[in-house]
Each structure stands twice: as structure tokens, then as C-alpha cells.
Specification:
The chain has 212 residues and is of the alpha+beta class. It has 6 helices and 7 strands. Helices cover 29% and strands 15% of the residues. A hairpin with a 2-residue loop joins strand 3 and strand 4. The chain starts with a helix and ends in a 22-residue tail after the last helix.
Length: 212
């Protein structure tokens, strides 16, 4: 017997991706060398990107989407709520960055094409609380933050930083169904959230050892 979509959103996700305990990092603000290599692999000239970061570790870089990763860009507050749902109730997230006041969620290739159609699907019509999500896939490019650790005195420009930094050469990336689930949960949670902001919201740390 098939389940309804309401059943899907009322139950915890059944996550099949294995947890990666070997790459556990409680401080997720800094990109590891393996994470930098993964990011650079998205570009046409990975060695040039890595050389640039070796010389200027605080330099953001524009990288193409579609082959190594897609990116879903959300408004800051809603993106934080999605991220909380992913870590508190779901499988965790892939790499996540902040750039110019928006949350950039790195997702599996193909997500940018599939997610908008899922959001438009009539069975998901009760999604009024979900703001427009910008989906970047094949043919698009995004600016990714520098790999520098935020403990260093200098800060990257344009409010660019990592919330969950890439830490392996093959990080787990959520697909469109997982991000849809998180968006619906975040929209539902929004009506129950106090008008007062959560204290130290910007300082929240996500333990990547929980990632599945």
C-alpha cells in the first residue's frame, strides 16, 4: 500500500547514506585540504584553483554547478530553519555556506532541475510558507567562500563564510527529496517559532559526525 505525501512529511526520514565518523569535525568553519580538492574539482582547472587558494587562502572563487554539485540558495532565516530540520530530525546536510545574506546548500547534481518541479507538484500545494528557492545547476555558477578558517583575524568579504565546510573528497550531498522534506518542515515550524530570535543563532555549530 502506497503512502500519502502527508505520511512522508509526518515521519522521520529513512536515511540510507552511511555516516562518516572518520571525518568528524566539531569546528565546521574551516575547509580541509580534501574538502578544498573536492570544491576545486568542480572547475575547469582544479590545479589553478588550488594554487590560488595556496597563495590567497581568503579568496572566494566562482565555481560551476551541475557536475560535482548543485546549489540551492535560500533566504537566510528560512535556510537556517531548513538546516536545523536537517540536523535535528534528518540526515544532516552537505556543505553549507553563507554568501551575501543567503544560505547556499550544496546538493547532489540534478537537484536544481528536480526540486522546482517537486515544489510545483499539486500534492505539495500546501507550501505557502516556503519562500522562492534559487536552484543553481548545469549552466550556472556560484561564488564559494574561501577555505580559510574563521578563527583567523581577517574575514572573507561580502559576508562569505562556511556553516558546514566540506571535509572530504566525496561528501554526502542531499537530493531534491531531502531538501523538499526540510523545506516543508521548516515552513511548518515557522508558525510555531517565537517572534524573538534564538540566542546566538549565528554561532550554532553542526556536528558533522552525525551526518549519514
Amino acid at each position: 500500500m502506497s503512502r500519502t505525501q502527508d505520511d512522508l512529511f509526518s515521519e522521520p526520514l529513512d536515511h540510507t547514506a552511511p555516516r562518516d565518523h572518520s571525518a568528524a569535525r566539531l569546528d565546521t568553519s574551516g575547509v580541509t585540504p580534501d574538502g578544498a580538492a573536492w570544491l576545486a574539482s568542480a572547475g575547469t582547472y582544479p590545479r589553478s584553483t588550488l594554487s590560488l587558494w595556496a597563495e590567497r587562502p581568503q579568496a572566494p572563487v566562482v565555481l560551476p554547478c551541475g557536475s560535482v554539485f548543485d546549489v540551492v540558495s535560500t533566504p537566510a532565516i528560512f535556510g537556517r530553519r531548513m538546516l536545523d530540520r536537517l540536523w535535528d530530525e534528518g540526515p544532516g546536510s552537505g556543505p553549507v555556506a553563507v554568501f551575501r545574506g543567503r544560505i547556499l546548500m550544496f546538493a547532489a547534481p540534478g537537484t536544481a532541475q528536480r526540486l522546482p518541479s517537486l515544489l510545483r507538484w499539486e500534492e505539495f500545494g500546501r507550501t505557502d510558507g516556503i519562500p522562492p528557492l534559487l536552484c543553481h545547476g548545469t549552466g550556472d555558477a556560484v561564488t564559494v567562500p574561501a577555505p580559510t578558517d574563521l578563527d583567523e583575524p581577517a574575514r572573507t568579504p561580502a559576508g562569505s563564510r562556511w556553516l558546514v565546510a566540506p571535509d572530504t573528497r566525496n561528501p554526502w550531498l542531499p537530493g531534491p527529496e531531502v531538501l523538499l522534506w526540510a523545506a516543508v518542515r521548516a515552513a511548518r515550524a515557522a508558525v510555531r517559532i517565537s517572534i524573538f530570535p534564538h540566542p546566538d543563532q549565528g554561532a550554532k555549530v553542526y556536528d558533522v559526525s552525525r551526518r549519514r
